[in-house]
Amino acid sequence: MTDPQPYIDEAYQRLRDQYIEVSELAGSLAHEIKNPLSVICMNMDLLAEDLDGAQSQRERRILNKIRIVQNQCGRLQTLLDDFLRFIRIHKIDLKAGNLNEQIQRVLEFIRPMADEANVEIHRYLDPDLPSILIDAPRLYAALLNLVINAVEAFAPEGGSIWVHTRQTSTGVLLDLIDNADGMDQEHLLHVFEPFYTTKENGSGLGLPTARRIIESHGGRIAVRSETERGTAFTLEFPMPARLTAEEE
What we know:
Layout: H1 5-50, H2 57-87, E1 95-97, H3 99-116, E2 119-125, E3 132-134, H4 136-152, E4 159-167, E5 171-178, H5 185-190, H6 206-216, E6 220-226, E7 230-238, H7 241-247
Parallel strand pairs: 2-4
Antiparallel strand pairs: 1-3, 4-5, 5-7, 6-7
């Protein structure tokens, strides 16, 4: 009987090559859109400066319309930037690194935002956490997105976030738990879908990008949530055998 595995591998490689080709094409298109968009934004800024301090009713109406165009230009620029990050995750450079160091950097960066939102962050980081293979800048970006989402989930009265790392039998694990309002089951089903968002000015690409980054590390991300109780993200990363041997 003929072994089907070579045909499966060949089909998988064709799909991967097609995905990369489409991603590169989409990236080129996004860049081509960014250039004229930048020109539009710049000229809107110049027009707004010309009409600054407008006195007549007509000039004020024109200025208000310019402000609307400026706002939409900003939204498009953000969407294009998020989209470019989303499609370029297949280019990843893995090196030995420590998950604790990455989450510590994120928490230090986010501290002013958390303080302003009256959010208290509790850290329980395993000091003996072993090394894993990471692309440090990309993993930092994924973790930053998850923590920012957690902080933004809180109402004005604030709340708490718990950050916990630990070793498992196959790698390392990170829990991000908050006691914010949580998500209903309908929202939870779509949370990792590209362009799905409940935020007024969100692109819907933050969490999908974070998931793709984590999966590109050979890891996985899971989420649990309950309305009025909070949300928990769990990230698991494998520890390659060669790193285990080096640390023994």
